[in-house]
Amino acid sequence: MSVIADIVVVVLLLFGAGFALIGSWGLVRLPSTMERLHGPTKATTLGLGALLVASVVYFQARLGVWTAHELLISLFLFITAPISANMIAKVHLHRVRIGAISEPDSIAGPPPRPSGEGEWATFETPRRDTPASTANS
Question: Could you please report the per-residue DSSP string of the chain?
Answer without folding.
Answer: --HHHHHHHHHHHHHHHHHHHHHHHHHHH-SSHHHHTHIIIIIHHHHHHHHHHHHHHHHHHHHS---SHHHHHHHHHHHHHHHHHHHHHHHHHHHHHHTS--PPP-SS-SPPPPSTT---SS--PPPS--HHHHHT-
